[in-house]
Amino acid sequence: MKEVVASMNIFIANINYQVQISGKGAQILSLKNKKTNSEYLWNGQEWPKHAPLLFPAIGRSNKDSYLIDDQPFDMPQHGFAADEEFEVIQKSDTAVTFELKSNATTKLMYPFDFSLKIKYQLLSTGLSISFKVTNLSSKTMPFALGSHPAFNVPLVGGKDSFDDYYLEFTGNQDKLQVYEIVMKPFPYRTGKLELLPTEHKHQVKLSRGLFSKGLRIIANQDVREVKLASNKSNRSISLKLKDFRNVCLWTKEDQPLPFLCIEPFNGLPDITGEPIDWMKKDGNLFLKPAQSKLMQYEILFD
Length: 302
Fold this sequence. Notes:
Layout: E1 9-13, E2 17-22, E3 28-33, E4 38-39, E5 53-54, E6 65-68, E7 71-74, E8 87-91, E9 95-101, H1 104-109, E10 114-122, E11 126-135, E12 141-143, E13 145-147, E14 150-152, E15 165-170, E16 177-182, E17 188-195, E18 203-205, E19 216-218, E20 225-230, E21 236-240, E22 246-250, E23 259-266, E24 285-287, E25 292-301
Antiparallel strand pairs: 1-2, 2-3, 3-4, 5-13, 6-7, 8-9, 9-10, 10-11, 11-25, 12-24, 13-23, 14-23, 15-18, 15-20, 16-17, 19-22, 20-21, 21-25, 22-23
């Protein structure tokens, strides 16, 4: 029987913030304001995750499978990185770097040698999260990468509620479009786009009805920053997303839970149908042998 080893939790802190990260999946478990002792990340049991990593897939593959050179490979929803143990390769009081390398388990699902590094660096105003993916194989490697942080809404205990909040998008010039999603049997794209309901051109009011169709993935429209704020509070969260093509918004559509996921995506869920050739899949990134890609975003607090 394989021995089960408990994941090690790592802490980093500066004068303003403290972050707790699990070695399993290199997932942030807690992100606190030290001065107010307020928690920014969701920690409820109704959705027992906090900020999982999505790699090398985003969403569920058709028939839980995909193709490389016409050979099928099984792939769980959002890939396998969230279930793998990462190694701490560098650590200071305010920063930590984790690494996952391909192994016998990952190669059954994903026939590539790779290195995935994640660095968490505290700033005076929040947290920087960077990802470095390196192709250690001898052939071109397709992949997707996403981050899935769930923020408490309301941000800080007070009189405001979920419906008092809004999202403001910076950098885009046109009306916001999202990928149309079909929810059954699982959330897949239809291949079509639809307009995201907005009060103003780049501002979206939160409501439970906004998520009645499930997740909302904003199409590539040069979104550089997303701000979560309320007119009844002076607290806000901003995500700077210049290295990510898309951003997904999600909360539980079947329960009125007090959280919102704001998810930077490089990659997309499948269009509903048959397993997809990953060398041709819309949204995938590609690395040539020995090539690396660095992606970074910041979570900033007011």
